[in-house]
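Contributing: when you submit paired examples, paste them exactly as shown. First protein:
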Amino acid sequence: MKKNRLLFISLLLLVSINFLWSQTVAKWHTSMGDFEVTMREDLVPITVGNFVDLTNSNFYDNLIFHRVISDFMIQDGCPLGTGYGGPGYAIPDEFHPSINYNVPYVLGMANAGANTGGSQYFITVESYPSLNNSYSAFGHVTLGSNIVEEISEVPTTGPNGTPANKPLTDVVIDSIRIMTPRLDGYLPIEDTLYVNAGEAMVFALVCNEEDVTYSWFIDDELQMETSFILNFTPAVNGWHEVKGVVSNENYDLPKVWWIYVTGGTEITDDVISNNTRLYQNIPNPFNPETTIKFYLNEAEQVSLEIRNIKGQLVKTLLKSELQAGEHSIIWNGKDDSGHNVASGIYLYHLKTNNISEIKKAILLK
């Protein structure tokens, strides 16, 4: 089985590894104790992806909480320890209605204005709705909130100090570590599949970590298969949910695919629920161009942007008022300057007055 697994990993690399965003758990080891945060890359993938990359590069090791305000928040992520340092780049803001500051113990991205996030983050200790839609929220403390509370109460220089609100005794982040299994790749790449009844499907999860287990569910029913590959042949038309779960000793990392079994394979055969939505691009992977479709339930202002996995803007495909109905636009793999972009994973981001939705596309050359 190990030989087959390595062969399958090689095949995945030929297709291009597609990194998964799900719900990652990160653990803070500090001089005052440990706590854990569950992050929501399914809702704000750019923000969480950036934080995970910095964490895995040990960026946060031995930094301090340089700004602490009682009954408000604790802040970290400045390599200078002054509040003026960062990673040397900026990422765009991401907001999602399902994660906000209406509750305490929220992990948010600090910034110096719109679209200036980098490495500095804060964790609130009270509800602060006034932060909504100004600072990207991307996680919640799920274990050790008492430690976060204790850090927020340490003596500081106060609001008029130099520097302001700096703990008199350093609270050191010994390290931050990602606790959930790292999923290195998966197939199929598309989130939504359009197939015929009787057509065999193959699903795969690839995790290079040791001591992980695999579980598969079809329509919430646990399957007998326990390897990293699942074969599934839908027998009848209708919706089917296939979920694969990679687990280590303490955590699960799920990925869900939705399958719509029908007599055709066109997106227009989908049962539209009269809600604004963004579809998976077709084809995916693509070269040299792909079609992105979306549905609007009412006339409204729309923007459609292509960004790389660091959140940097690559191409603005659309920014205008559109009528209700289905719309499509072709991306030819070029940036705003007309240059061909490199092979890799790209995020296409649909924003309207009512929704902000992101999906992944892969360019292969």
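Second protein:
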Amino acid sequence: MIDSLFIANRGEIAVRIIRTARELGIRTVVGYSTEDANSLGVKLADDTVCLGPAEAIASYMNVRNIIAGALLKGCQAVHPGVGFLAENDDFAERVIENGLIFIGPRPETLRALGNKIRARQLATELSIPIIPGSEGSIDTLDEAIEVGREIGYPILLKASAGGGGKGIRIVRREEELKEAMQFVSKEAMAAFGDGTLFVERFLENPRHVEVQLVADEKGNVLVFGERDCTIQINHQKIVEEQPATCIEREVKKRIEADAVKLLKELHFVGAGTVEFLYSDNEYYFMEVNPRIQVEHPVTEMVVDKDLIALQIMAAGGKNLSEIFPSDGEELMEKRYALECRVNALKPGQITEFIAPGGFGVRVDTHIYPGYFVSPYYDALLLKLITFAESRGKVIERMKRALEETFIGGIETNMELLKKIITNSEFRSNSYGDKLLKILKEG
């Protein structure tokens, strides 16, 4: 069993990992940047290592310093959290080469999934439905024009190595293709060092669902239901719920079976999600996120399991086959959870923070009065989660929790979240991914 853990991340996810590790009796060491010297993660960890200056490339993505810090402090394992190096196969390989355990999939699995074109091809080989598009990369404008004419507009130009909302653009007319290809390729090259593109048909107003899974080294793949992550800004999720009530039960069974089949083929180890788009009672594979997701608390509240703990156990070689009870499916159908991500709109210092409470409310955060929201990192301030016995009740509880929350000194997206939660289309569960556009225009 792992007894010491180096956390190569920051913010609320670092705090979240520390709390689970402490309950498991695991010593924690947090790597931090000079900008985060006063962060909550630094205050809570058993030990710390400064990784470098504020810029992420020099600290949270500084592979050499992270590994040196983990070895210096006598850690057995490295947890990459989310973002930064969490899906980086070279980092995972370096961690393992230095005798440390990487809390995540094997490097070869990350390598296979890091290329979205290869992931689509693998799904096709396994007879998992994919969105119509190019069979491989699109290298010229003429190739893009040919695919666009074949599958019909609108289309999506996507970077093979994309993620986090970067390297993706909707193209509605052939005349827009040339400029769009130049933009997406340049953005992808800057963000990921790879400008390779492919094309997919753009689905109008679909639902975005993802299956949560945890797999161990013995080949067991545990399924923890589906989350609905349709509401996004620039492909960044801001509201998530479970179960995904937009999907019929029989379709859910097929989606789950396909997700398990894919992870077994990849010999996947750890926590991950398989993402799908759902439209007109049909589903299409999008990608695999080979890490813990920001929205994992939604699932935890429904299934009553600590996914970070399971992730650590899987990496430590534990057999997870007896972790999830046989009545787990029944449990998932009786509980509902909803998450709102509260983000800062601008950097600044928090002067006051009042967190909501009461029955059925959970707050995951790293902020406190006096905390400075840095311009260098993700704008996430807190994740507000409510859970209840029905979708209607969980929405009402979220409305109450949002009204109780107060963050002084900075601008946040709280008002937008309140609009979403009180919107009639959201409440009636009849919305698609155009909901935010409708709210903004209204």
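If you have annotations for the second protein, write them as plain sentences, like these:
The CA atoms of residues 9 and 81 lie 6 Å apart.
The chain has a mean pLDDT of 93.
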